[in-house]
Amino acid sequence: KAEWPRPDAAYQQSVLGGGEGGQVLYTYQPTARHAALRRELEMLVQHTADPQALFDLVRHEPGHVEALLQLHAVARQTGQRERAVEHLERALYSLELGFHPTFAQAWLRGEARLDYDQPANRPLFTALHLHAAGLSQRGCPAAALAAATLLLSLDRSDPTSVLLWLDSLALRAGRPHLLAELERDLPVAASLPGWAFSAALAARLAAAELPAPSDPSSAAAASAAVSDSRTPTSRSAVPCCRAHASAIRSCTARSASLCAASSSRASAARAAAS
Q1: pLDDT score at 52
Q2: Which positions ≥6 away from 94 have C-beta within 8 Å?
Q3: Dmax over Cα atoms in the chain, in whole Å?
Q4: 8 A C-beta contact, residue 170 and residue 152
Q5: Of 122, 211, 237, 271, whose CB is crowded by the most CB atoms within 10 A?
């Protein structure tokens, strides 16, 4: 954002080498200044539990990734959602400033790799995972799915366990075909809890050409709809839609009767007054 201070990059990326299929292995390295600031943060965490010390550190060093992630956790735990989002986005911005010139394009092509076992690479994994989870909680499943798949592409061993909820994200975002692609590229996904149900539901949704559910309750409704043997592809035959329409008609009729009764009482009151 324009009002954010522009920090110096805390980390700098470099290329370690190439791999199979055009893959390029990148790694982060902390700058000398940031290495000293990390030690200062460790001392702060050990000697005080006051978040104000973190605020003071970020005020002087606005690109301190680890301090911003700590403040994100504090704001989230205290119910300050907007401030938590801001701290997380600032951490991602600081990490982005250190991107290698070729990293962004290679990442979007699915060719960039980062080794989670390297400690300097972990802040990006942590920040992206938190960002995807936050987008999902704010009702943005498509954006959350994009962030989660980008995160998974960096390290196919899935060190942050994003595959455990990527299936539900794909269904909520209207991308049921993505589950089959993930099973083909990552066979381990098929053995995860809940994946079998999500894959079966995705296959039925794709076959019936129904929209993917946007929440768990509509997932159950869609499952019931595609199992309806009478009209399996008809949207008007979805049970929850019929119940919803009946409830609307009932509420409309009740509202009309209440309005009529109120009008009768008003007319009687005016007649009595005259």
Answers
A1: 81
A2: 7, 9, 10, 11, 62, 63, 64, 65, 68
A3: 95
A4: no
A5: 122
